[in-house]
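Shipment paperwork, digital attachment
Item: protein structure file
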Amino acid sequence: MKENTPTPFERTVAGFSYLTGGIVGMFWLIVCAFRQSFPRRFLLFNILQSIFVTLCYVLVNTVFWWIVNIISYIPFLNRIIRQLVYLFNMPYLFGYSVMQVIIYGTVLYMVVFSFMGVYAYLPWFSKVILSNFKD
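Attachment content:
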């Protein structure tokens, strides 16, 4: 086995870190701190990316709903915005809305790639995470 190939345990922790929104990864970082060890690059990349993607999702979702609630007081925009929000959240595919398909598809992509032992690349997020690593 190559030295930089992720172990099955690292793949599992990385995959579950995406599935739990970074909570498993955060616990693993705490365990590594108590053991005074440092996780390898693959695992650290996936843990940090799962936490960063989750935080960005929560932030964007919160800001979006604040804006929608503010715009809902404007008379003519109220109806247009509410219809657009309804269209994106209305179930289309097997009971899932367009937004759910996009979110679940992204999470599934990241989980599958981490279980395969390959870096899951998301255009802006991965660049931010990789910029924090020293080569």
